[in-house]
Design a protein that fits this description.
The chain is of the alpha+beta class and about 130 residues long. The protein has three helices and five strands; from the N terminus they run ββααββαβ. The termini are far apart.
């Protein structure tokens, strides 16, 4: 009965843990997390410090977006090898992914697993 939440944000950083790859993302398994953080810059330092542990957890890519309406609200998408690894990551996240325990804001879900369907980008007008 509720209006589905829509996240509008800007890219903070996209990290590919397996080197350059295809830009085709449709159909890949993604763990999504909406979280509120005190400092997005500090969050990114922790992400970079934990990159090897993310790889060991089956994470292939990490995309971090900052909400347009709240600079402390972030959406973090993590492409994972397969659905089993995704659920394991949600159940037992590495300490490098501390935002996983603070997931879910208002109408937004806690952690979720899905298949990437579509990314819409709106370019700025000249």
């Amino acid at each position: 009965d509720d209006i589905p939440p829509i996240f509008g944000g800007e890219v903070v950083e996209k990290i590919d843990l397996h080197g350059p790859s295809s830009e085709v993302h449709v159909g890949r398994i993604v763990v999504g997390v909406m979280s509120s953080v005190d400092d997005v810059s500090a969050l990114m330092v922790k992400v970079h410090d934990g990159l090897e542990r993310f790889k060991q957890g089956g994470v292939r890519k990490i995309w971090v977006y900052r909400a347009l309406d709240d600079g402390r609200e972030v959406m973090i998408l993590q492409e994972i090898d397969d659905e089993g690894s995704a659920w394991q990551w949600i159940d037992h996240p590495d300490s490098a992914a501390e935002w996983m325990s603070h997931a879910g804001l208002g109408a937004y879900p806690t952690q979720f697993v899905g298949k990437f369907a579509h990314l819409m980008t709106i370019d700025e007008q000249s």
